[in-house]
Amino acid sequence: GVSLQPCSVSCRAPSTMFSKMPTRKSVLLPLLLSACHLLSVSPFGIQTSMRVGKRVLHVSSALSEPPRVRPRALPKGADLNTGARGKSRDALLEEQAQQAAKSAALGSRYDPIEAEKYFNLRTLDVWRRDMQISVPFTTFLGQVLLDFQRGVEKANRPRRAKEFMELIANLGPAFIKAGQALSSRPDLLPPEYLQELQKLQDRLPPFPNEVAFKIIEDQLGMKLQDIFERVEPEPVAAASIGQVYKAYLKTGEAVAIKVQRPECEEVIALDIYILRELSGTLSQMIKLLRRDLDLRSVVEEFGKLIYEEIDYLQEARNAERFAELYGNNPDIYVPKIFWRFSSRKVLVMEWVEGVRLTSPLVSEKDKTRLVRAMVQCSLQQMLEKGFFHADPHGGNLLATSDGKLVYLDFGMMSEVEPYQRYGILEAVIHMVNRDFNSLCKLYVRLGFIPPGTDVQPIEDALTKALPDVLGSSVDTFNIKNVIGELGDVMYKFPFNLPPYYTAIVRCLGVLEGLAIQVDGKFRIINDAYPYIASRVLTDSQLQDALEYMVLTRERKVRWQRLENLLQSASDFDEWDLSQASRLFIDFLFSEENEQVRENMVDDLTDFVDGLGLEALEYALSSSRVLLPDILRSGPLPDSPRLPQLPPSLREALGRLELLRSSSFLDRYLQRPDRLTALARDVYQSLRQKPQAQRFLLEASTHLFERASSRTIRLLFQMPQVPPSQLPRISQSLGHARALPGRE
What we know:
By secondary structure, the chain is an alpha+beta fold.
């Protein structure tokens, strides 16, 4: 139960732990503070009481809610239905409310310093809640310590993990949210604990309708019947922070009303304060388990995140930004926000009819298409735009009857800076190529591992942990396995994962879990790697990664890797071949890559030479089979026994067939204008590169020399030498320097 205790005296503080308030100097301030204290009235707002467990806990609201910004009235003389600039009255009011909401100051934000000052004056309230939290926590940690001393910690870990999850679930909304956040922190907890915490359900019984409707009226400054034609009597969902009703506006639109739980912010403020105070003691106890963790910084980071989530105006801004970035995708739909009827504790948005992706009402074809759209949109969010939905579970994604994917609940969003996005792309590339030394160096550069750490043990652990996951090909491993194996390593070594990384890890795990429910054989990496390959080939910021992937230390091209990269990128529908061609030409014909060009001339000459030599030998051996039959009178045999095609010819024909049957080539053949534009772009790019003309001249000259040498050997019946043993381009052109690695 929640009750508000009216007070006869109230005042605003100069500042609160959440928002800066204007300072008012007065000689009466000490007297007012004393009076407030004697009357049990908070100088930061009103005194409230909340029931936590079986106790009634008195907590002073530390939030001074700024007055709600109302849209201005319509100009005099404006029509009731049509206002200025020909817009309807509702449209004008909505536009004004949107502008007012965007320009309004941010809502409650966590400030640990102000929180400490505030709660230091309320020792009794803090002590009561502290007992409810610290006693079960210290008891649990004591049991884990005993397990360690008896040598049974690993055997008892599954049972302890389940006890820990139940402990978290019984402590209220802040702890439920914290537990969900911890479920993606392999650097803090072992895998058994992570698995149990992933089972936490953010569901609570709904609070009474009369309380919810009173909050709506207080927040919007209007009677419920003046806003809504009808509100459904039962909430459609209830969680730890708020609950949702279906309603209808006076204009007829169906909407969803999200109402924050009463005193939710105050409960969370007190719990985070206590957790922060306990973090020092808990860190010391955890050190006995041979883990050195800065729990205080973890609690403070969580405080910042949860306070953004309980600000519904911030959620509305998130939804609008999400729609601006990704709403142009024909498969994605974002509900409209009704700004006039939204505040920091009430959010009204468009009601969208839909079902979960796993529903039997969705056809298998639509399920597959929508899952692919979900994955591609998520990759774009995390690795391209950097603003992503961090909680895409099944309840936050709907399939509509017209085949669109609807995103809901924009309270938990995360952002990734450009350098972090490129770091993630590089990490995937290093894992795919099993270059764990470079991966460890990248982790140090990104701040995951402290500078100066000996990374050799970490490299050895990664090599040992990931052989079966990444051993064969990109198609065989899944995100769950990768996260699990990496999590074991990150728990054993001194990793410190930043919030954006854990948000991405959780997001990818949830996405793949949801996709597997739709298609048991689905692997998110199957869709992710083509996107990553296309980015590597088209993003100028990833040229170092491309060079690392396709060049050896001797600056020779790894043709198999380049072919695999091109083949993977061609599976991505939006791959820009023109951009990839321009970047490749710029890279190949830059001044510093002369060595690459020479090696490429040698490789191309060897390939054509070897192919021609095998074709010639095949033609000669075939003629020895066919010539007697041709010279002999009579009909030729129906199926002459020709020799088997040599390996190089079979491989070349196989590649041609693969190219001919690819959907990527079909897209270009169906649009001759695109093919013409591509050829024109490549021609113009080559014309502007003097090195390109020299490259073509050297290649043709070297190929002509090789063909002449082969012809002379053939005419004089000299043995043919393998292509690799013939002179290199640097020798045939009289270059002074030799290739690196050659004497």
